[in-house]
Amino acid sequence: MNELRTEHLIFPDWPAPSQVWAVSTTRHGGVSAPPYASLNLAEHVGDDPRCIAENRRRLTSVMGFAAEPAWLEQVHGIQVVAAETVERPVAADAAWTRVVSQPCVVMTADCLPVLLCDRLGTVVAAAHAGWRGLAGGVIAATVTRMEVSPATLLAWLGPAIGPDVFEVGEEVRAAFLALDAEAEGCFRPSPAGRWLADIYELARRQLRALGVAAIYGGDCCTVSEPERFFSYRRESRTGRMATLIGLQ
Q: Of 70, 121, 180, 193, which alpha carbon lies 20 to 30 A from 37's?
């Protein structure tokens, strides 16, 4: 049986304090059948609910979660919730907590997962930053809810669509340039006459503008690595990875 093992998981390479744990899943280690093979963790994509439950159970077992992760109903918005208040999926795109053993989680399959913690290890957060949420201010909304100086925060950018394949229209470029005129360097012309966007660099610019200087990760491409990651843009009907953070 394809058991979930720690080598199937991605552990951020960042200098977070010892009481902060963080992890991002790949597509490996679950029981879902194609096109959700195999560790799909999302309930909204058409997968067998029994497979999703088993995949989540495996993640809980391997990571030793004491509480259920605060699964969200992500809507590409900027709503941020306290993870410990989530009893069933709520419409939100980020969660934060100061409660030990309460995992925050976001799910992605091309959108950008952003993890945040403070240097003292007192508060953590996870944000789902697709281009709409990023342009709407989901990172700023999350940082605000953490109620610590942004200068004390560390950020990790999890697996997302890479800058060589994230093709967008002029309306996306215009939305970001309206927020930050100097973000023009995050876009370059595509062969199809559109734009290739660097969602990682767009997020870095927003974090730095907020005062978050310690930024890590941002070196994967979900579209170009089919053996590791689900990708909605590549496959449309597919599973979702999870990126989680918590205090121990």
A: 70
